[in-house]
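User: Design a sequence. Structure:
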């Protein structure tokens, strides 16, 4: 049996139904608001995209790039290589006679001239041997003189038939014998004189003496393995470097014409020029393992800028190109084995143009295919294509080539 529901129960049920309806309304309102916000955001984004596309379509400021103008001038073409400073003469001084080293007459590092005395070997034994040889020579010369007097006397006596012919012939043979002895003695004197002279050791060339290798008081041997000093010529001095075989014909042709090819010596960083000289000669054969030939350049070295066995960077001036179009090397691009450059047009757009590199030297290249005065793009290539609009900014100017106009 169902019991009737009282007024209090009915009111509670009605209140609960109203609360549930209010919750559903609030959820729907929240959903509508979120949808409205999302729609507004999409509208803003689309508007921005359309505005940006419109700006691009109208051209805008364009791609920002650096630019440089092609110029007419001359370009020095160099061949770069690593060279070694090599003296023209280096002498290892040793003693030619045995004896005690009594004097060292040079200072380490001293600049000496040819004939300057470097050291002295005890000369007394050699002076005595020289005196003995001279005494022997004098005695035999006296004997020769006497035998010639006897020969003259015997010849006169033989003419008068006072003596037999055999006696006169014997006197003549005695003279010839004494002449031979005197010649032998003269050779002994000369040899003794040479040995005596060898006791004073002189520099055979002009140059710089190295460190002292033997001290006074030591017994030195004749032609020993330990040198007394080394002397190296510094002025002039040479540098030996290598040249690729591809350039030999051009170098030889210019040398045959009497042209002196300039060679520069630079420091290790190639930022400072040490000395300037001229090419002296090429070697007589190519190294088959490297495909290069050795070259020797000579330098006056008046201020001793170059030091023996020093490594230097060399630059051989191969030729000079006159009245060529010069552009920054950065402006030349490579695409499918073809070189080109972006040329800025009067309307601010760029167009690629094929170029041929005649020669390149550092940051400057001599090219054909563009004209002097053309404006070329030097960076920002990844954003460029034919017809792109560009905005130019001044780039750091490369080193001005010699004779550029």
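Assistant: Done.
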């Amino acid at each position: 049996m169902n019991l009737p529901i009282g007024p209090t129960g009915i009111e509670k049920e009605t209140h609960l139904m109203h609360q549930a309806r209010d919750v559903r309304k609030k959820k729907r309102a929240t959903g509508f608001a979120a949808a409205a916000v999302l729609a507004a955001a999409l509208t803003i984004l689309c508007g921005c995209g359309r505005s940006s596309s419109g700006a691009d379509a109208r051209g805008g400021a364009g791609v920002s790039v650096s630019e440089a103008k092609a110029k007419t001038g001359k370009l020095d073409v160099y061949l770069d290589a690593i060279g070694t400073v090599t003296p023209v003469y280096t002498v290892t001084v040793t003693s030619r006679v045995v004896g005690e080293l009594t004097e060292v007459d040079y200072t380490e590092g001293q600049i000496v001239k040819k004939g300057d005395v470097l050291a002295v070997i005890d000369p007394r034994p050699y002076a005595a041997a020289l005196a003995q040889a001279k005494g022997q020579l004098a005695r035999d010369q006296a004997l020769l003189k006497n035998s010639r007097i006897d020969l003259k006397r015997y010849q006169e006596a033989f003419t008068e038939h006072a003596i037999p012919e055999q006696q006169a012939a014997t006197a003549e043979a005695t003279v010839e014998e004494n002449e031979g002895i005197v010649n032998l003695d003269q050779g002994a004197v000369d040899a003794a004189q040479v040995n005596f002279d060898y006791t004073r050791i002189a520099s055979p060339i002009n140059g710089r003496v190295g460190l002292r290798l033997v001290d006074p008081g030591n017994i030195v041997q004749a032609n020993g393995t330990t040198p007394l000093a080394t002397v190296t010529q510094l002025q002039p001095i040479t540098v030996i470097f290598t040249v690729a075989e591809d350039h030999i014909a051009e170098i030889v042709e210019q040398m045959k014409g009497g042209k002196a090819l300039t060679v520069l010596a630079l420091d290790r960083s190639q930022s400072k020029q040490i000395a300037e000289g001229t090419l002296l000669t090429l070697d007589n054969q190519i190294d088959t393992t490297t495909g290069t030939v050795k070259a020797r350049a000579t330098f006056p070295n008046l201020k001793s800028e170059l030091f023996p066995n020093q490594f230097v960077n060399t630059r051989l001036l191969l030729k000079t190109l006159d009245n060529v179009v010069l552009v920054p090397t950065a402006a030349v691009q490579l695409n499918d084995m073809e070189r080109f450059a972006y040329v800025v047009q009067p309307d601010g757009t760029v167009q690629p143009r094929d170029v041929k590199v005649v020669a390149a030297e550092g940051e400057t290249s001599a090219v054909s295919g563009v004209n002097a005065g053309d404006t070329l793009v030097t960076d920002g290539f990844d954003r460029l294509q034919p017809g792109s609009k560009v905005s130019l900014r001044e780039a750091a100017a490369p080193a001005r080539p010699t004779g550029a106009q």
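The helical segments are 7-57, 124-159, 165-198, 248-256. The CA atoms of residues 97 and 222 lie 4 Å apart.
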